[in-house]
Amino acid sequence: MSEPVGISVEGVHFGYPGRPVLRGVDLTVEPGELTALVGLNGCGKSTLLRLTAGLLRPGKGRVLLGGQDLAGLSRRAAARRVALLHQSAPAVPGMTVRQLVRQGRYAARGPLGMLREGDDAVVRRALEDVGVAGWADRSVEGLSGGERQRVRLAMALAQDTRVLLLDEPTTYLDLHHQLDVLRTVVRLREERGLTVVMVLHDLAHAARFAERIVALRDGRVVADGAPEEVVTPGFLAEVLRVAGRVGRDPEGNWPVCYPDHPLPT
């Protein structure tokens, strides 16, 4: 297995005409680290993931994977180095689980390779690692939201990269499936030696499952550190604009938040 790959974001600015999104972001994610990005809607979290996946180009600054500048890579070349699980995606009518997961091999196999029938070893492993091999011939349309998210995670793993980015992977899922997906991500990161960055809205999940929390506000990094160091009542007020209290889980000792009321934005 290849060694984990680190991420370096250096002085990145990005925006649209009349609407700046990121305003000079510096961030280093160490190889093999699991980092959660948090912050209010519109603070730039998803944009930062897309820049890190090579889907967007910074207006200023640069993003490096394993020391290589993404600006010098095509999208397909970037997809061979980093996989991004988008927030949501519509089911493709008539597509089976196996067929959807095989789409993750496009960057490696190309359009002609995708025409070949049969799964390669990477697809088979992705199906097995996420626990969906038994569903391979089921229609994606017939799956529940939680089942579909597991399949989409298998598709991202089929890119066979060392960096995995997840944009709100628990959105629209009930609590059972939220925990199921996050526990699966933690396990796969350990088994595969992945570097993982995930955008999470639920601070409780970020504090429990990530070893590092990076918070954005107004397109800038305003907090960065281990959950037990970062998550405080001041953090809740400054980053999430809520007044609240912070305690500790009696068994795992991770921070537990008790939000009281919203603060003016």
Automatic annotation (TrEMBL):
One of its GO terms (biological process) is iron ion transport. Keywords: ATP-binding, Cell membrane, Ion transport, Iron, Iron transport, Membrane, Nucleotide-binding, Transport. SUPFAM superfamilies: P-loop containing nucleoside triphosphate hydrolases. GO terms for molecular function: ATP binding; ATP hydrolysis activity. SMART domains: AAA. Residues 7-243 form the ABC transporter domain. It is found in: Cell membrane. It holds the Pfam family ABC_tran. It comes from the Bacteria. The keyword Cell division does not apply. This is ABC-type Fe3+-siderophore transporter ATP-binding protein. It is a peripheral membrane protein. PROSITE patterns: ABC_TRANSPORTER_1, ABC_TRANSPORTER_2. It comes from Streptomyces glaucescens. The keyword Disulfide bond does not apply. InterPro entries: AAA+_ATPase (IPR003593), ABC_transporter-like_ATP-bd (IPR003439), ABC_transporter-like_CS (IPR017871), P-loop_NTPase (IPR027417), Siderophore_ABC-ATPase (IPR051535). One of its GO terms (cellular component) is plasma membrane.
